[in-house]
Specification:
Distance between the termini: 57 Å
Largest sheet: 5 strands, parallel
CATH superfamily of the largest domain: Response regulator
CATH class of the largest domain: Alpha Beta
Helix content: 25-40%
CATH topology of the largest domain: Rossmann fold
Radius of gyration: 21 Å
Order of helices and strands: EHEHEHEHEHHEEEEEHEEEEEH
Number of strands: 15
Number of domains: 2
Length: 242
């Protein structure tokens, strides 16, 4: 059995999912929300296995909802806008239903959820988009107090693990990300961002100098921060040397 939450600001959208989901006794709706704030409360309370998530909603988008969740369940986006498909891939959505969709298309999405349970992977949606084009975000939304700041990825100087989170350092500020450093590494272009320590990733465009020691390197970044390169990652720095 899978607990399911439906999130759509249009009642017709939620009604259609309720109707289609009757074909799947293993999917049990446990709640609905028509806005982002209520969606966050509902998901954190019920901890569903799957959410059907609209993207453009008053006050808070579906992507913003995800940044406030204690745990991220499987996601099927259900939206009238096709321009968010690649961003859906970035948050590892299982599928992306473009309204208006048919019962057969809904069936395909549910089958992908059930298949993902049997064969865990990056997900059918991620795989199909990856085949089309490997892409990395140029801009991201990062938390700053109660606001989300639109940050150009190229402005990140380096990244430091902070417990289960990560701290993104720029010239002016640092921002705390909900993702661990391993997940951050997966999302960034490896041509620019280099893992140099289990707790550190650097943007090679901001390297000022490198100090060599017997068993390690220290990388001085252009903002003055010094990042230690651990022994296991030294070969990555050596590859940059000519």
């Amino acid at each position: 059995m899978k607990k399911v939450v439906l999130i759509d600001d249009e009642s017709a959208g939620r009604k259609l999912i309720r109707e289609y989901i009757k074909d799947y006794p293993e999917l049990v709706p446990v709640g609905e929300a028509n806005n982002g704030v209520d969606a966050i409360k509902l998901i954190n309370e019920f901890q569903p296995d799957l959410i059907f998530l609209d993207i453009q909603m008053p006050g808070m988008s579906g992507f913003e909802v995800l940044t406030h969740l204690d745990e991220i369940p499987q996601i099927i986006f259900s939206t009238a806008y096709d321009q968010y498909a690649l961003k859906a891939f970035e948050v590892h959505a299982v599928d992306y239903l473009l309204k208006p969709y048919t019962r057969e298309r809904f069936h395909q999405a549910v089958q992908r959820v059930l298949q993902a349970d049997r064969q865990p992977s990056a997900g059918p949606l991620a795989e199909s988009l990856l085949q089309e084009k490997q892409t990395y975000p140029e801009r991201i939304l990062v938390q700053s107090g109660r606001r989300l700041i639109n940050l150009a990825v190229q402005h990140i100087i380096w990244i430091e693990a902070d417990g289960d989170y990560s701290r993104l350092v720029t010239a002016e500020h640092s921002y705390l990300s909900n993702y661990g450093i391993g997940k951050i590494e997966e999302k960034l272009d490896p041509e620019a961002f280099l893992r140099v320590h289990r707790s550190s990733i650097i943007n090679i465009h901001y390297i000022e100098s490198v100090d060599k020691y017997a068993s390690s390197y220290d990388v001085k970044m252009q903002n003055g921060d010094v990042v230690r390169v651990s022994r296991g990652y030294m070969d990555k720095i050596k590859e940059l040397m000519f």
